[in-house]
């Protein structure tokens, strides 16, 4: 399966390039919007929450601590939401391509991941420049973001592939997940700190795999220390299961998907 992806790497990279270009075609500022949009969001978070509302994190005495906490969660959640949301409809949206061309269908989820990573790299790169400019860059511990990011991407595409295959046969899956994603966002400590939750609800966060991932980003970027690796073990196990289930469903149902589409 993956040898086939390597043979079609030109198709994959070309698709990523075309999608990026088409997003800003006929736009006056073109790709500059990829910089302006996240820059506006980071500015709003910093000005509104840190300066106007005076939001502070308990035990952290930094001027931009809350805006960094918020950006660390919101930006990385955006990557998770983009991959899973697009992956659940990737086979349906490319139905004509699947019917007319012979190529490894697994290329489609990979294209979704690469597109999302390109967008994320631009946004998070700007956020990193903000950390350097504001004097809040965490130093060498910043490198610990990469294993957490890899874990998140694998979990996202594993879950996305399960949803994508099921959504071909049961269209309610996509509608249900869109609603679930909204509740999932607010059940994850992104806008609020964990300490703001009542203790009984705080204990339920153990059942939220994204809470540990977002918390790891926030620990690295806000507190400047290594995350709780043991706390990431449950989502690491869940990631393996999701990827295995996604590949198994894909291999068993890829032939039937063509007829269903």
Automatic annotation (TrEMBL):
Membrane-crossing residues? 27-48, 63-85, 106-133, 139-166, 173-192, 229-250
Give UniProt keywords alphabetically.
Capsule biogenesis/degradation, Cell membrane, Membrane, Polysaccharide transport, Sugar transport, Transmembrane, Transmembrane helix, Transport
Q: Where in the cell is it found?
A: Cell inner membrane; Cell membrane
Q: Which InterPro entries match?
A: ABC2_TM (IPR013525), ABC2_TM_bact-type (IPR047817), ABC_2_transport (IPR000412)
Principal location: membrane
Q: Which PANTHER family does the UniProt entry name for this protein? A: CAPSULE POLYSACCHARIDE EXPORT INNER-MEMBRANE PROTEIN CTRC, INNER MEMBRANE TRANSPORT PERMEASE
What is this protein's name?
Answer: Transport permease protein
Natural source organism: Massilia antarctica
